């Protein structure tokens, strides 16, 4: 057989098979016993507080873009129509803010990070992501956490479009890390081979931010 039957698809398929063999992206999987549901130092709230840098950008879907760059096979720049054409998922999860409030049972809809990763295919050396938002906010996290099965690019909360103050039209939700990792008004995802600090991480917050390990500040 000659080599000219090689198409981009077979290259992509081979790469996906290799990830499966390596168990890539499985490490972010998080299941915990119910008794361990509230992380240490947290208290429950019923409302949903708003926290950000005080600038809530007005981002409309007709000029929204999501750029995916860095250590990936397929760089993307999605407009709303292209993003909306991706498969949709629904997830139920708790959220935990470093300011000590937690809120249970949030129903999210959007595009799972798994489905996005299927499109962009991180290179084998990609190990971290840096998120950039329309208000200039940045935050970093390990790729394995970004790829966790509960993580999604959320467009809806409790069946309603995400409001502007909570990061609409699209925010990240990575429920097993403190909420500062869940960038509101997301605009760009860059895959990195080395970790870099985002906004709060440069200002003393933890590079990972696991609530069960109380990874609040860089010394924790
Ligand atoms: N773009 C952007 N995303 C952000 C922030 C921000 O200032 N800008 N703040 C983070 C912090 S510190 C928290 S606690 C959560 C709060 O999300 P909420 O306002 O929807 O509760 O958003 C995170 N994502
Ligand atoms: Mo926060």
Topology:
Blueprint: H1 8-22, E1 43-44, E2 65-70, E3 76-79, H2 80-84, E4 89-96, E5 101-112, H3 113-120, E6 128-133, E7 138-142, H4 143-146, E8 152-157, E9 160-161, E10 171-173, E11 186-192, H5 199-202
Parallel strand pairs: 1-5, 2-11
Antiparallel strand pairs: 2-3, 4-5, 5-8, 6-7, 6-11, 8-9, 8-10
This protein binds the ligand Nc1nc2c(c(=O)[nH]1)N[C@H]1C(S)=C(S)[C@@H](COP(=O)(O)O)O[C@H]1N2 and molybdenum atom.
Question: Could you characterize the architecture of this molecule?
Answer:
By secondary structure, the protein is α+β, with helices and mostly antiparallel strands. The protein has one domain: Sulfite Oxidase, Chain A, domain 2, CATH 3.90.420.10. It is built from 5 helices and 11 strands. It has helices at residues 8-22, 80-84, 113-120, 143-146, 199-202, and strands spanning 43-44, 65-70, 76-79, 89-96, 101-112, 128-133, 138-142, 152-157, 160-161, 171-173, 186-192. The strands form 2 sheets. Strands 1, 4, 5, 8, 9 and 10 form a 6-stranded mixed beta sheet that branches. Strand 2 and strand 3 (76-79) form a beta hairpin. The protein is globular. The termini are far apart. The model is unreliable at 1-6 (pLDDT under 50). Molybdenum atom (MO) binds next to loops.
Short recap of the structure:
With 220 residues, the chain is α+β, with helices and mostly antiparallel strands. The chain is 16% helix and 28% strand.
């Amino acid at each position: 057989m000659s080599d000219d039957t090689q198409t981009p698809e077979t290259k992509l398929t081979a790469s996906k098979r290799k990830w499966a063999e390596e168990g890539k992206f499985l490490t972010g999987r998080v299941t915990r016993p119910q008794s361990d549901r509230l992380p240490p130092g947290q208290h429950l709230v019923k409302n949903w507080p708003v926290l950000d840098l005080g600038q809530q950008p007005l981002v409309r879907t007709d000029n929204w873009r999501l750029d995916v760059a860095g250590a990936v096979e397929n760089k993307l720049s999605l407009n709303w129509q292209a993003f909306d054409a991706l498969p949709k998922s629904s997830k139920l999860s708790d959220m935990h803010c470093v300011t000590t409030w937690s809120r249970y049972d949030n129903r999210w809809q959007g595009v799972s990070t798994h489905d996005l990763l299927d499109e962009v295919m991180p290179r084998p050396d990609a190990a971290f992501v840096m998120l950039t938002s329309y208000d200039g906010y940045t935050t970093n996290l390990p790729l394995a956490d970004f790829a966790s099965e509960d993580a999604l690019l959320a467009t809806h909360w409790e069946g309603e479009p995400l409001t502007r103050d909570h990061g609409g039209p699209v925010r990240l939700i990575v429920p097993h890390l403190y909420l500062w990792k869940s960038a509101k008004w997301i605009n760009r995802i860059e895959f990195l081979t080395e970790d870099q600090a985002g906004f709060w991480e440069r200002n003393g917050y933890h590079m990972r931010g696991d609530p069960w390990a109380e990874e609040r500040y860089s010394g924790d």
